Amino acid sequence: MPRESKRALRERANRIFELLAEEYPDAECALRHRSPFELAVATILSAQTTDERVNMVTPELFGRYPDAHALAAADLAEVEEIIRSTGFYRNKARNIVGFAQALVEEHGGEVPRSMEALTALPGVGRKTANVILGNAFGIDEGIVVDTHVKRLSRRLGLTREENPEKIERDLMVLFPRERWTLLSHLLIFHGRRVCDARRPRCEACVVAGLCPSSRV
DNA sequence: ATCCCGAGGG
DNA sequence: CCCTCTGGAT
Fold first, then answer.
1. From A26, A146, A166, A196, the catalytic residue
2. A92, A110 in Cβ contact below 8 A?
3. Could you tell me the pLDDT band of residue A1, with boundaries at 50, 70 and 90?
4. What's the whole-model pTM score?
5. CATH superfamily of the A36-137 domain
6. CATH of domain A6-28+143-210
């Protein structure tokens, strides 16, 4: 069995992207809020939880603290109480209030638009910054390689690498830049709902026909 | 029992 | 590099 050509691989990869985008039309806006501020805060809260859980607390959170100035002056204990169900709530409360304070003090209350400025802010690492840049500003800086993206990329035969940075490079070559951000969301959605670590449900998978690991 | 759209700190 | 922080889903 001959190895798949680069061209064939790229075509298969982008066909997978299109099928997943069709399957999960709301993947890109699951965390999209009214302003970059809301999106950034919601993204910080989303660490180690689901979008659904974050979306349950954001109405109350942004009802009380509609902008960076309000959140910067918030009472920590109150914020903790509101976001409790998202997990890591003490860290996250400290982070989003500190984030708001940094926005006010260093960026005039606005969310900055560069990877460097974002990752300098409390609670924002590379992954969170990537999501903020992609969803709030349409800037595709890179691909977030979390455990889902890693697992699915390998199962789908998009990479043979193990190292997340090498996986990211392979994916960046395979997909046009304007698909980088959405790709992460699609693989994460699919990883949670269908292609999980324990028992992948190939019979319910829309890209099973394009997947070398599929059992069907 | 185990895993998760992570970041910060020792 | 390894640890901690948390709740919820499965």
1. A146
2. no
3. low
4. 0.86
5. Hypothetical protein; domain 2 (1.10.340.30)
6. 1.10.1670.10
